[in-house]
Design a protein that fits this description.
Number of domains: 1
Number of helices: 2
Strand content: 25-35%
Order of helices and strands: EEEEEHH
Helix content: 25-40%
């Protein structure tokens, strides 16, 4: 797994060769959620509402980058960092 972004105490990660559907992992304190890239639905886990709002805002800004990153991860290629929220 590779950390691809960190902002406001939230850590965004992506696993190499992970299973479909395309998603990323968001961690905040003791919470963790798997979030779908196509619609930002929480697939498993949970985040507090404020943290989830920040994750959704960030993911909306970087959706194309996340999809490209997913494709790289499935090929076991190096992952780049994505800019955090300001």
């Amino acid at each position: 797994m590779s950390e691809i972004c960190r902002f406001y105490g939230i850590v965004i990660k992506m696993y190499f060769a992970d299973h479909a559907p395309p998603h990323f992992h968001a961690e905040y304190a003791e919470y963790e959620a798997r979030v779908a890239i196509n619609n930002f639905a929480v697939l498993t886990g949970e985040l507090p509402p404020r943290a989830m709002g920040l994750v959704a805002e960030w993911a909306t800004l970087h959706q194309k980058e996340l999809q490209a990153m997913w494709e790289r991860a499935t090929k076991l290629e190096a992952l780049n960092r994505i800019d955090p929220l300001p």
